[in-house]
Amino acid sequence: MNKFTKTALASIFTFSAAGASAAAFQLAEVSTSGLGMAYAGNAAVADNASVVATNPALMTKFKQVEISAGGVYVDADVDVEGSFRTVNGRAIPSSATGNANAKDIIPSAIVPNLYVVAPISERFAVGGGVNVNYGLKSEFEKTYSAGVLAGKTKLSAVNYNFSSAYDLGYGFSFGAGLNAVHAKATLERHFGALNPMAPTATASRLKGDKWGFRWNVGLTYDINENNRLGVAYHSPVDLRFKGKYVGTQSANVEIPGRLNLELPAYWEISGYHKLTEKLAVQYSYKKTHWNSFRELRATDNNGKVLLQKDKKFNNNSRIALGVSYDVIEALTLRAGIAYDESASVAHPSISIPDTYRTWYTLGATYRFTPNLSVDLSYAHLSGSKNTFTESQVTAVTSAVGEFKVKSTANLYGLNVNYKF
């Protein structure tokens, strides 16, 4: 990391409705076929090579080399209503300075993916993939009155995965993967109401990147040819940033700084059941261990605290139910519904417009030939309204704001799959 500064660190790893369909800064958009079923059955369904991102044990179900490439376009509508209530203990009149409203704070974005699965023998397969597991992009105007709380925030954590799987027999398959994660962040904050004479002046700025590593494992059990259960686990990622700090703790002089952050572990249990020759149902329960994210703490090389901000995230759960129907041999239709809990209940932020979300999804796969198919999916995400108070307190200044965040999003997915 090249540069990290006081206020920007307070929201470095956050993801909201438009890049983050899942809680906090986690992404769910790993495939288009999964999107069509609200990602129900992710650890048990072997529709295409995207199983590399969900449960590597499913790679034993493939008889040919297969690739899948595409992405999900996220179009979010996130608005903030609020006011900057006090600065340094003094009330701010209801004026343009104290107004903290903002519209469309999440720009549209594409979440890409690429996967390949290659059977080596009847029982052994390998695979690899690239997808984005975590990320955020939120933008407020430079004149925003609460600029010390939110400005420009951009984060992406690209996951590079190599996996292998083995058919253990008796219906069981096991898979494991190694992952390299490249995290990049750009953050910028402005003084806003803290400096009415120059509200657009930059209070802090951050731009940097860091590599981390993780592992994942998965297990599937085929009850019979029409029923399958799956479970998958993805380990946490420890990111140890080293860079430069500028802020009140350094008298606005650039000094070396350190910040340790963890991308949380998560696990998922899924089921797949083919009820008739044409109709199947899928379901999932997913748990993400956000309780490891307690605070953001930056220090200098001597251990002096440069920044401390409580987060105290909660573990969150996600449940999903989906159906698929083979209209004809060449066409499969999908639908799904899911409910996703918020992780930032204790300390919400306008730079983390996290909320409880409900998914409504539709999708289809069309097979042009036995080897070539295309997935199309659409999802509407409806977020609950979130009302909260947020503050920024340092040794020399403090600011308090009251906010209400409304969020919805529309997702459009496209993937192309090919078998060799």
Automatic annotation (TrEMBL):
The keyword Aminoacyl-tRNA synthetase does not apply. Residues 1-22 form the signal peptide. It comes from the Bacteria. InterPro entries: OMPP1/FadL/TodX. One of its GO terms (molecular function) is long-chain fatty acid transporting porin activity. GO terms for cellular component: cell outer membrane. It is a multi-pass membrane protein. Keywords: Cell outer membrane, Membrane, Signal, Transmembrane, Transmembrane beta strand. It is found in: Cell outer membrane. Belongs to the OmpP1/FadL family. This is Outer membrane protein P1. It comes from Glaesserella parasuis.
